[in-house]
Amino acid sequence: MESKKGVISVQFNWIFILIAGSLILLFFGSLVLKMRDVSDTAIAETILTNMQTIMTGAEVSVRTINPIEIPDKEIEFSCNSISVGKVSKPITKNKIVFAPEVIKGRLLLTWALDWNSPYHVTNFLYLTTKDIKYIFIEQLDDEAEKIFNMLPDEINKKREDISNIKDTGSNFKLVFFDVSSPDIPSNLKSISDKRISAVNINFNFNEIKFYEKNGDTFDFVKKVNYLSDPMILGAIFSGNQEDYECNIEKAFNKLNLVSKIYEKRTNSLSELYSETSCISYYDITPFSIDYSKASITEINSAINSIETSNQYLQSLSCPTIY
Q1: Are residues 123 and 176 in the same domain?
Q2: Is 152 domain-assigned?
Q3: Which of 46, 173, 270, 284 has the fewest CB atoms within 10 Å, measured from its CB?
Q4: Would you list the DSSP string of 169-205?
């Protein structure tokens, strides 16, 4: 009887040891996972803080390409936020950033252009990496050639006949000019849909059409109107049509605010020079539209009117609107 009790006691002790050991392993395992999560969160916070600083600095370095080393982490961009893993930080309404949906690799390329309509409104910031190849589909006319030449040489850009395009392992942004229906190059039909997209630019109608790959064809997404070359470049750099339109909305909201300032200036000048030949050109009518809601045609007409008035004022040696 005592022998049986001894055997049961030993078995109980082993069961207790196994349970206790499992609990200890579970405790330390969860502790390691929590510490890893805390570490990943801290790293993500640091990356995002540094990225915000980088974007602020790059935004004011107009017409200068800046290669910047970054951690080898996936950084996700949208119009209003930037994220690493589960951590995200906002992109303010005043900052207009055209970027791919995901940036990977250790080298970030930043580039900024000033946007004037007709006076300076804001700077557009463009982000990319060497992993993204921007291919301008030949043949290019003079206007298309101008857009190609605007892109800095450091950016992975190329003119190419569609039949000659090969899979180099990169992500691809194809830039077409006024074609009826963009085709996917035969050598790229088998690659992942996420690795390739396209825009089709029509200079005659100030239109940009966005396309996404769906198997071996391009699906049309949406047609939008643009106002100037920096907006065309924004479409080329944008990861998708939604982010592009969101950033353009930000731009027109900023234009509306800046225009109100110039409206007050023009009104003040018209009062100061009411008895002179200058008064004819201090017309505040072009400022009466809501630039954040007006059509591209209306905005373009207002801008042309302001530019014309400004040129006449300059020729008469009058104080200019801008």
Answers
A1: no
A2: yes
A3: 46
A4: SSEEEEEEES-SS----GGGTTS-GGGEEEEEEETTT
Give the three-state DSSP class for 77.
strand
Domain boundary among 212, 239, 266: 239
Claim to verify: residue 7 and residue 118 sit in the same structural domain: yes
Shared-domain flag, residues 7 and 74: yes
* Whole-number Cα distances in Å, 224 to 54, 198, 201, 202, 209: 30, 14, 10, 10, 6
Cα radius of gyration (the chain)? 29
How far is residue 114's CA from residue 120's CA, in Å, rounded to a whole number? 7
Instruction: Choose one of 129, 157, 192: the last residue of a domain.
Output: 129
Nearest CA to 283 out of 297, 272, 269 is that of 269
Q: Is residue 282 included in any domain, yes or no? A: yes
Q: How many domains does the chain have?
A: 3
Measured CA to CA, the distance from residue 212 to residue 219 in angstroms comes to 5
Within-domain flag for 138: yes
Closest CA to 252 of 286, 223, 289: 289
Residues 6+ apart with CB under 8 A from 24: none
CB distance 122 to 227 below 8 Å: no
Per-residue pLDDT of the chain (322 residues; tens, 9 = 90+): 555 555 556 566 677 676 776 767 776 666 566 666 666 789 899 999 999 999 999 999 899 999 999 999 999 999 999 999 999 999 999 999 999 999 998 999 999 999 999 999 999 999 999 999 999 999 999 999 999 999 999 999 999 999 999 999 999 999 999 999 999 999 999 999 999 999 999 999 999 999 999 999 999 999 999 999 999 999 999 999 999 999 999 999 999 999 999 999 999 999 999 999 999 999 999 999 999 999 999 999 999 999 999 999 999 999 999 9
The verdict on whether omega for the bond into residue 139 sits within 30 degrees of 0, i.e. cis, is yes
- Cα–Cα dist 250/121, whole Å: 11
